[in-house]
Amino acid sequence: MFLVLAGISFLFISGCGEESFSRYPSVAIPEFANEDYYVQLSDKNPQVTYNAVVNLGEQAAGLGKLLSDDKANKNSPEYITADKIYHRIVKLLNSSDSNTVAASLRFLQLFSSNYSKKPELLNPALKIKSDDPQVLYEQIRLLERIPCKSDSIGDSILRKFVSNPSWVVSRSSYLLIDKLGNENLRQELISRYKTCANEAEKLLILTAFNNQPGDIDADFFFGEIMSAKSNKIRYALYDILGNCKNQEKVLTWVAQNYGKILTDDRKYLFQHYAATMEDNFSTRLLEIFLNNGFIADRSFLKLLDEGLEGYSNKNNLEPKDEESLSNLKKLEGALINGKAMVVYWQNLRKEKEVLNARITALQSEYNTVIEKYSVTIDEILKKYGVSEKMRKEYLENITISRESLKALFEPDKESKGQK
């Protein structure tokens, strides 16, 4: 197990190879097909069974997709074999051989990526009885992929992961805690954070707050932001501010302490939340920055402009789209009303007007030329026996869209790299 577990440690740290089965050694058997490996899933030799699971693993995602296809022929040999493989591997989670259980869990992770009935995997995954670090690691990774309610996985199971002697198993569990938004375990991790001096450990603990909103101790995080000497820790804390349930408190703190936030930190905060500028929290936070004279870069202005144009060109906006457009207009208002950015915004809009005029003129001239020569081109194609239908399709394709012309004015990658 040592070799494979060492590979897991590397994968966890690097984040590479997540969707590959390659971390498990195996021997491919010449001429063997899925049906042959399925037979070996019931072999009395656990090493043979393990090897069959791994060999089937590279096709796991495809098998999950097949069993989720409503149009698939359920009587076809391929479907029947896929169904048998899936149910047999689920049963192997109860195997006494830890290698087989770990490989089966890995198979189900890949299988579930395209499987429409993921929730049915929850109970089998929770019933596993093993203290093997590799099994526990794979169990955590499978549980991360299964949609479930926050209370579907009990605190006792999560504590088993968090307190595990394996460093990799313990730290892997933080992401599962975040997925579930488990407040009890989050508070315990905060207590661990407060007594921890190691930067890497603190950063890992903060991953338990990455995505799911929670009753985060905002005051504690505010204090950490102001006192932390590590850029990495401050930036990680900024990333999770939007997950505090009491967002009003966060926004008030940012407004009151804007002048105390380091200049580079302001840039990081602005860029991070500019990526989600249509979100209510992000909009209000960005407004605070713009109202305080923050100078946003051109990429933000272009992103805002494209968003406004995109929603304005839509017909019958959904309520969510209406809200997004409203938020973008608030940011535009902050730019126009603020002294710091109004000139940059006006210049961008003027440049856009000039560009649109050039594109309109170019499209008009281009289409005039095409119309002039389309009759001649049609006659040439007809001369060489091209059918009327194909001639019509060809002539339609030699026209050029406005978007295609617009792309001609975008700087190429090489030019961007030189600037």
Mean pLDDT: 88
Largest sheet descriptor: none
CATH top-level class of the domain at 1-148: Mainly Alpha
Please tally the β strands and state the result.
0
- The secondary-structure class comes to mainly alpha
The coarse overall form would be flat
Uncertain spans: 1-18, 413-419
Please outline the helices and strands.
Blueprint: H1 2-14, H2 34-40, H3 46-57, H4 60-67, H5 77-91, H6 98-112, H7 122-126, H8 133-145, H9 155-162, H10 167-180, H11 183-194, H12 199-206, H13 218-227, H14 231-240, H15 247-257, H16 263-274, H17 280-291, H18 298-312, H19 319-337, H20 342-383, H21 388-397, H22 402-408, H23 413-418
Helix pairs in contact: 2-3, 3-6, 4-5, 4-6, 6-8, 8-10, 11-12, 12-14, 13-14, 14-16, 15-17, 16-17, 17-19, 18-19, 18-20, 19-20, 20-21
